[in-house]
Amino acid sequence: MKVIVENIAVEYVETGAGPVILMLHGWKDSLNTYDAVAPLLPSYRIVRLDMPGFGASDSPKKAWGVGEYVDFVKKFTEKLAISPDVIIGHSFGGRVAIKGVGSGVLQPKKLVLIAAAGLAQRPTLSNHVLAGIAKIGRLATSIPPLTLWQNALRRKLYGALGSDYFNAGSLKETFKKVVSEDLSEFAAKITIPTLLIWGRNDASTPLSQGERIHELIERSQLDIVMNAGHFVHKEKPAEVAALIQSFL
Fold this sequence. Notes:
Elements: E1 2-5, E2 8-15, E3 20-24, E4 45-49, H1 66-79, E5 86-90, H2 92-103, E6 110-114, H3 125-140, H4 150-160, H5 172-179, H6 184-187, E7 194-199, H7 207-216, E8 220-225, H8 232-235, H9 237-247
Parallel strand pairs: 3-4, 3-5, 5-6, 6-7, 7-8
Antiparallel strand pairs: 1-2, 2-4
């Protein structure tokens, strides 16, 4: 289904009946990320959307930060005349949920964060070394004919740093704004019951991130899913759905 929110055409799917669960997907993902989990929560009215710039929704007209996405989600719920009882956010969707709930713009009764991003990662020696190499590589390949290989080299080096920058396409400036914000202060302001679900083998948002968010959110519980990575909800949908159902 389509709806126009702030002159942006937004794709969304709505299923079931009961208390409302709003599901927010991760970066470079879509509402389909929850295809395996949503049917396992039959007692709820589940609303999923492609956030602007992803899936079948239009892109923002300018670079957005997390705050703009929070405001958009609020306006989306108002457009559909829903007040989500629960918000579930994976990765980037977790960023939006953390800032939205922590700022009071979004006001669900409960919150579920799956491999949520949003906290500034502590720099490591390897990151410093790779960042230095990337800068050297950029300078070295600025000399013709090496300029032909500049982007390919930088893509590999920044990929080693775990950055999605080169895969962001037209959302590169949005990506930079989103990842530059540390949401620790907003996490610390969350007072509603919060469930954190993490894959033990998550390399994108390591378990240490989940542990830090758990420390910041007073009324939170952290459940770890073994033999699962960043897309734990896709890898272990039955286990994740059971954790959510029990929490709710």
